[in-house]
Amino acid sequence: MGLWARISRVFRASTGAALDKIENPELVLQQTIRDMRDRVPELNNSVAQVMATERLLAKNKENLAKQVVELDSKIKAAVKMGRDDIATAYIGQLQQAQVDLERTDAQLELAGAASKNALKARDNYVLNMKKRSAEAMQLISAAKQAKLQEQLAQTMEGFNIGDDSSTFNEMREKIERRVAAAEAKLQLGSSNVDSQMADIEREAMDIQLQDKLLAYKSEMGMLGAGSPDTKQIAASSDVQEAEVLNSSILDESNKQSHSN
């Protein structure tokens, strides 16, 4: 292979690669559809010209046919009048008109076939154009979908799932630690001294209510001297006295601690 052939091949390869990069299939297909649609008016004009030629020949044939009939009548009239010279002139015109009629008839037949072929070609082109347009629209949709998929793939390539997974795990551990600490604080708050004192106060109130109930029964003579309820009143009185004594002792100790 010669040097210039190799250079030419390299140049064509480089040019083709550059065109492939800048060539947009979607735009090319859209331009192709426009070009096909732009040819339809040209085809219609061509078909119209062929059909006009056919109509012109048909009109010419009709005129020639009338002319033949008129010349035939004139020839007969001239013969009746004994004007052979005029009849001979009309016969010459008749022969020429018949030749023109035959030639026009042949041309009209060809023109009719040409019109049919032109119409068929135009219809086939329009049908093919519609088919190609539909295919082009499908290809354009596929190109758009491919472009979106390429963009999505690029986005996914830039998404480092490992780093984000570690971040999610770290945040999950922090939240779990906070939840555990809150639960522990809640448990401690529910078991503190204030809660215990509240329970004791409720129990003491229940005891006082029971004592008052027994006192009412005793005043009304509903309790015997050795009945269990009487014993319960005595026990309750002893408990109250013990509580008063303990309270006094605690107050005394508190005063001494303050004085020291």
Name the beta content range: under 5%
Give the radius of gyration.
61 Å
Unreliable stretches, pLDDT < 50, 5 or more residues?
none
Class of the largest domain in CATH? Mainly Alpha
Shape, per Cα inertia axes: elongated
Q: What average pLDDT do the residues reach?
A: 76
Would you mind describing this structure in some detail?
- It is a single chain.
- About 90% of the residues lie in helices and about 0% in strands.
- With about 260 residues, the protein is mostly helical.
- The chain has two domains: about 130 residues, Helix Hairpins (Orthogonal Bundle); about 70 residues, no CATH class.
- Helix 5 packs across helix 6.
- The mean pLDDT is about 75.
Question: What is this structure, in a nutshell?
Answer:
With 260 residues, the protein is mostly helical. The chain contains 6 helices and no strands. The longest helix has 74 residues, at 84-157.
Descriptive key words:
Helix Hairpins; elongated; mainly alpha; single chain
Task: Record the SSE blueprint.
Elements: H1 3-22, H2 25-80, H3 84-157, H4 161-190, H5 193-219, H6 228-259
Helix pairs in contact: 2-3, 5-6
